[in-house]
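Reviewer 2 asked us to include a model.

Predict the structure of this chain.
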Amino acid sequence: MIPRYAPARIQEIWSDRHRFDLWLRVEILACEAWSSLGRVPAEALPRIRAATVDPQRVAEIEARVGHDVVAFLTAVSESVGQPEARYLHLGLTSSDVVDTAFALQLRESADVILEDLRQLRGTAAALAVRHRGTIMVGRTHGIHAEPITFGFKVAGWVAELDRTIARLEQATAEVATGKLSGPVGTHSSVDPRVEEYVCSALGLRVDPVSTQVVGRDRHAAFMSALATAAASMERIALEVRHLQRSEVGEALEPFGDEQKGSSAMPHKRNPVLTERICGLARVVRGHALTAQENVALWHERDISHSSAERVIFPDACCLVDFMATELGRVLAGLEVHPTRMLQNLELGGGIVYSQAALLALVESGLSREDAYRIVQSAAHRALRGDGGFRANLQADPEVAARIGERMDEIFSPARFLRHVDLAFERLGLTVEVNAGA
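Predicted model (structure tokens):
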């Protein structure tokens, strides 16, 4: 099941054609392994290796027999001919082929997603360095807190994308696991050497103790990594949405020359790209719950997981890759407004410097309780439109006597930003971006 928004490379990975090609690859490798053990005549291998599979023919047969792997084997056997076709699927059960090929599809999808996540990370890194010194207000609870730089904010996104990439790499290594252990996983009909040969040739781990299927905890972990990647991209997209709000106006997602924001209100410039990313993240999180539900199967297996997996894994892989490319487009074309950032920083006449004023009063010998009361009163009056914060402080005789000469120092953002470069050094952003320039 391939969504219409799927990027082309992901579409191909989850197409029927590619899935059947992978099934055929598993079958051919198994025949090679059996041949090395004397179970398949060497002279049969050329015909088996030349086998082809027609997805339309498989669909026609499946409509009659009601079993996809049986239909696949019948179609492949027609291309191979007898007597060679009788060596196909020797000792195997359907899950040997399906699960092993499924691991390849997941790994191939992850390779594409990781490539686009790394590209997104690079775009974010360049944005962070470009605005390393662009001063803005930091916010907690949605309320002005203390000065930061926009580059520092974006550096946090870069660090999170680094964790996202590492997490998906680890989950991919775990889910890249195959099995050819026959019904219920005991190797009663499949020599373990066949399993080892096939998985080695495909670059997969061997499930050390499978049932009739590869344990679905691996798949749940992979889906969880995708869901967390989606959540991290949602966090970035949500921040852009907040910064684009009319009252904020500090950063705006790209907007085409002929783009329309509303059918009724021509002035609208809605953050539709980032809203789309946030909405799709919710879908991927739902798929993560389904993947968790698939872990518990009856005894050595049932197929309750199968129908769900045909939907959630192609969909999630497509969605996460789409989100990565879409968010990359947003960050590459992001409109950053430093002047508006400075205007917002000075809201209320410098209330973001309240902690600096508080500490200066405490250092002057005033009790913290008295200092807090004075600073809070001056700040809240400023927020109500009664003067500016700095002016209110300077009008207080005790404040003027204690810290009046230090006002320029207190109301300077420099002291708040003196360690901002540490974040860039820890991420290696300056070296990395300059090296790629």
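The radius of gyration is 30 Å. The chain has a mean pLDDT of 93. We have added this to the supplementary material.
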